[in-house]
Design a protein that fits this description.
- By secondary structure, the chain is of the alpha+beta class.
- It is built from seven helices and seven strands, in the order ααβββααααββαββ.
- The strands form two sheets. Strands 1-4-5-6-7 form a five-stranded antiparallel β-sheet. The protein has a two-stranded antiparallel ribbon with strand order 2-3.
- A hairpin with a 2-residue loop joins strand 6 and strand 7.
- The mean pLDDT is 80.
């Protein structure tokens, strides 16, 4: 509850500061007659305090998210059944041995592989932070967009020379320029990921769901005490611990439509009440 409140506060503060700083940037830099001036003194201090408040609230939310990922309960349900029986020798008190039939053991490597892929998903992000920061620094420092943050209203030059007068930078204008760069590049990256990368190259979540279906393993994640997410990975073929030839035959059946693949994408959020499992909404 506290972390959700901190996330809400940081988002609201960031939106307000971004809108106010961008409006100040436009009004101050593109005025034909010098009328509008930048805030000074206590207003600048209040602006800096609000930035620190938004950062602290967001940091608390990120710390809680990392803690939640490290402490949540994950259950891997293996639907594979024993394939036949084997004869073993049971040692009894008598010196003579007796043969007994027991089910063949099921391989654990499919569950281990699914768990390893789940661990790799914990660091997957929609945006590449290294690339995003590099492009922002390139635009601000190398291209010279940071000169728009000068308190001189007539300084609309991207580049500067040693002979040209360079005024001091305003923290409000710097925040506006940085926010514009971050938000614009983030929107472009998200459009690229959604429209091109995930659609034509790879979608990490869907690939994990496909892996669970091929491995005949379901995943139940309890992010809260009575709330979690379920990925139904039970194979439509009944068995997954097979040889390469049978697995290839099963995939061909799915490709030509002889077997329904709708259950591969059964991914829902669940609420547990009174020992019953209730579906809330699909996810993924």
């Amino acid at each position: 509850m506290i972390t959700e409140f901190c996330s809400f506060i940081s988002t609201c503060v960031f939106i307000v500061l971004t809108v106010v700083s961008v409006l100040m940037l436009l009004l101050y830099k593109f005025q034909s007659v010098f009328i509008f001036t930048l805030p000074t003194g206590a207003s600048v201090i209040l602006f800096s305090v609000m930035i620190c408040l938004a950062f602290i609230c967001r940091a608390m939310q990120v710390i809680y998210l990392v803690w939640q990922q490290c402490t949540l309960d994950i259950f891997f349900v293996d639907w594979e059944k024993p394939n036949g029986v084997v004869m073993t020798t049971a040692l009894q008190q008598e010196p003579s041995a007796q043969l007994q039939s027991v089910p063949t053991p099921v391989s654990i490597w499919r569950v281990c592989f699914a768990a390893n892929e789940w661990n790799e998903l914990q660091t997957v992000r929609k945006l590449n932070p290294t690339l995003l920061l590099s492009i922002v620094l390139l635009l601000l420092s190398i291209v010279g967009l940071e000169h728009f943050a000068e308190v001189d209203p007539s300084s609309l030059h991207v580049t500067t020379s040693q002979d040209r007068y360079s005024a001091a930078h305003s923290i409000i204008l710097r925040f506006a320029l940085t926010s514009i760069c971050f938000l614009s590049l983030s929107a472009i990256m998200r459009l690229y990921m959604f429209g091109l990368y995930e659609r034509f190259y790879e979608h990490k979540i869907k690939q994990f769901v496909d892996l669970c279906s091929v491995a005949n393993v379901s995943v139940f994640v309890l992010s809260e005490e009575l709330f979690g997410h379920y990925i139904h990975g039970r194979s439509v073929h009944g068995r997954a611990d097979t040889d390469m030839q049978e697995m290839r035959s099963n995939l061909i059946k799915e490709q030509v439509g002889r077997v329904s693949c709708a259950c591969r994408y059964v991914c829902v959020s669940c609420i547990i009440t009174g020992g019953h499992l209730w579906q809330k909404r699909p996810f993924g």
